[in-house]
């Protein structure tokens, strides 16, 4: 499992990361071609079902990236998605979803390095785990 | 060009905040509570103000003395306070004084951050314009606070304000009379200033309510760590530089006390006002007294033009540059169950729930008010029934994109 190519689907708020410098021309991250990105206007737009669909259709992991907590351009989008994924706000992430495969990053457009480090850590966490019971 | 400028300012602001995040962590970054900070400091002003009010006497001959009595500096021969007045009175006055500066500074910081990060435009015009009114009110209430001390500077400000008002066409003379409550300055004048000060502070609350009216979850409380930090700042400032009255006489008397001598230039009020004797120059408090600096340096007409022009610019700022608004959320009537999730989550109160016709399957339907919609899609994320969508970014398209990416990756 650990050496296998992974597919990671991320939903990234267009205001959080400097995506114009981070994509390979398509939708894969330059620094991490395994990671594909769906751009949304605000992380609050992400429905938990999107993440569930991604996992169900074969992605190895999925994540949401929004602005720094306290600094959402639309005031509360990042708080909302965080609460939805934590199961505190409807619609919630289904309880049967493997939460280890669902990442959350909240960064500013100047935090590219921090984001990549957190993403790498998230991926390493996927590898470190025993094989998932499917 | 202007958009580029806004992008640059945003980039610089974010870079600066990244440094602060490093020092304070994201959760306690005071810059993320920029709007809540002035409101938080306002409570200090209200409570310290009530304490000061208990001892304040709004008459021409007692105002300065009563303030001085609060500050607990003994003045020989003064009818009100021969001996020292209230313990820690100067510190309470210092909290009021430094809190006022803090409120003005954080208000300006709040305004700059909102402007620099491009959060003042379009659907946010109402909070912005009421914010401009709030700024004017904070300035007004702060200035009237200086008048209550009734020192030489207060008298200077009254005279300068009368000059400003008299320059207003037609209503000028009446406005000037209204300011002082009659043809000349009397005891009633100070009662009126006290009313302006306290009444203005009450009106700030009304404006704050309007400021919040279109925000679903306004950030009105800073984080606890930030609260303690601000509390610490104010207490340290008020404790080390308490607000007092300094006159030449007092300075001579207390020359040996370096604490008092050091304050002569900063937080001290002047000698009592002498009606008819105008000082040549006053100490300008940068946060509040720039209008009088303008009066002194460029004249009455230019002062009006500059202040009026600045206000006008601030008021029209949210409407330029115009945005292309093609992605306003749309409700799909057949799917909406009236569950209210979108309306609860919309950060700008753009979605209202409206009753459906009797006999309908569901009781209510969501309705989007286009002018308030920020096109952020938070409602899309909130809707469990795919009943609300952004026309240019349908969640079906997003899901198709997603499947495409999974396939390519596999």
Automatic annotation (TrEMBL), chain A:
Domain named F420-non-reducing hydrogenase iron-sulfur subunit D: residues: 8-126
Entry annotated with the keyword Secreted: no
Pfam families per record: FlpD
Keywords: Iron, Iron-sulfur, Metal-binding, Oxidoreductase
Keyword Metal-binding applies: yes
InterPro entries, per the entry: MvhD/FlpD
GO molecular function: iron-sulfur cluster binding; metal ion binding; oxidoreductase activity
Name of the molecule in the record: F420-non-reducing hydrogenase iron-sulfur subunit D domain-containing protein
UniProt source species: Mesoterricola sediminis
Automatic annotation (TrEMBL), chain B:
Keywords per UniProt: Iron, Iron-sulfur, Membrane, Metal-binding, Transmembrane, Transmembrane helix
Gene Ontology cellular component terms for the protein in this record: membrane
Residue ranges constituting the Cytochrome b/b6 N-terminal region profile domain according to the UniProt record: 1-224
Cross-referenced Gene3D superfamilies: 3.30.70.20, Cytochrome Bc1 Complex, Chain C
Residue ranges of domain 4Fe-4S ferredoxin-type in the record: 327-356, 364-393
Domain of life: Bacteria
GO molecular function, one term: iron-sulfur cluster binding
Transmembrane segments: 37-56, 98-116, 128-149, 193-213, 225-244, 301-320
GO biological process, one term: respiratory electron transport chain
Protein name listed in UniProt: 4Fe-4S dicluster domain-containing protein
């Amino acid at each position: 499992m650990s050496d296998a190519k992974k597919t990671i689907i991320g939903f990234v708020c267009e205001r959080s990361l400097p995506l114009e410098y981070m994509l390979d021309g398509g939708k894969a991250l330059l620094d991490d071609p395994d990671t594909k990105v769906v751009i949304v206007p605000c992380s609050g737009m992400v429905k938990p079902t999107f993440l569930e669909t991604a996992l169900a259709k074969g992605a190895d992991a999925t994540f949401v990236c929004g602005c720094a907590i306290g600094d959402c351009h639309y005031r509360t989008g990042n708080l909302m998605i965080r609460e939805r994924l934590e199961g505190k706000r409807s619609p919630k992430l289904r309880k049967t979803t493997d939460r280890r495969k669902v990442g959350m990053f909240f960064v500013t457009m100047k935090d590219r390095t921090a984001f990549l480090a957190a993403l790498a850590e998230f991926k390493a966490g996927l590898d470190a785990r025993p094989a998932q019971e499917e | 060009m202007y958009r580029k400028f806004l992008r640059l300012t945003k980039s610089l602001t974010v870079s600066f905040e990244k440094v602060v995040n490093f020092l304070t962590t994201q959760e306690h970054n005071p810059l993320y509570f920029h709007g809540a900070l002035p409101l938080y400091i306002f409570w200090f002003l209200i409570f310290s103000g009530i304490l000061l009010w208990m001892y304040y006497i709004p008459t021409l001959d007692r105002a300065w003395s009563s303030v001085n009595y609060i500050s607990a500096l003994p003045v020989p021969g003064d009818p009100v306070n021969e001996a020292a007045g209230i313990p820690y009175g100067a510190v309470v006055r210092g909290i009021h004084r430094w809190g006022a500066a803090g409120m003005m500074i954080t208000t300006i910081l709040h305004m700059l951050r909102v402007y620099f990060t491009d959060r003042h435009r379009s659907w946010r015009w109402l909070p912005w314009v009421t914010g401009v009114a709030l700024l004017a009110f904070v300035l007004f209430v702060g200035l009237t606070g200086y008048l209550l001390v009734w020192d030489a500077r207060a008298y200077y400000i009254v005279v300068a304000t009368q000059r400003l008002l008299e320059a207003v066409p037609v209503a000028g003379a009446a406005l000037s009379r209204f300011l002082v409550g009659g043809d000349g300055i009397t005891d009633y004048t100070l009662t009126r200033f006290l009313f302006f000060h306290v009444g203005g502070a009450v009106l700030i609350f009304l404006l704050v309510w309007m400021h919040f009216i279109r925000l679903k979850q306004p950030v009105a409380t800073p984080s606890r760590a930030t609260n303690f930090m601000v509390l610490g700042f104010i207490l340290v400032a008020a404790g080390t530089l308490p607000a007092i009255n300094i006159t030449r006489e007092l300075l001579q008397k207390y020359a040996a006390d370096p604490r008092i001598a050091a304050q002569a230039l900063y937080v001290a009020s002047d000698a009592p006002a002498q009606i008819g004797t105008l000082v040549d120059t006053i100490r300008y408090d940068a946060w509040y007294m720039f209008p009088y600096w303008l009066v002194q340096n460029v004249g009455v007409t230019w002062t009006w033009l500059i202040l009026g022009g600045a206000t006008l610019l601030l008021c029209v700022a949210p409407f330029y540059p115009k945005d292309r608004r093609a992605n306003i959320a749309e409700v799909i009537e057949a799917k909406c169950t009236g569950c209210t999730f979108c309306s609860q989550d919309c950060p700008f109160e753009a979605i209202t729930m409206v009753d459906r016709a009797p006999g309908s399957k569901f009781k209510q339907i969501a309705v989007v008010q286009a002018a308030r919609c920020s096109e952020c899609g938070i409602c899309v994320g909130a809707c469990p029934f795919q009943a609300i969508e952004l026309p240019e970014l349908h969640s079906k398209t997003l899901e198709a994109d997603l499947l495409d990416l999974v396939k390519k990756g596999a």
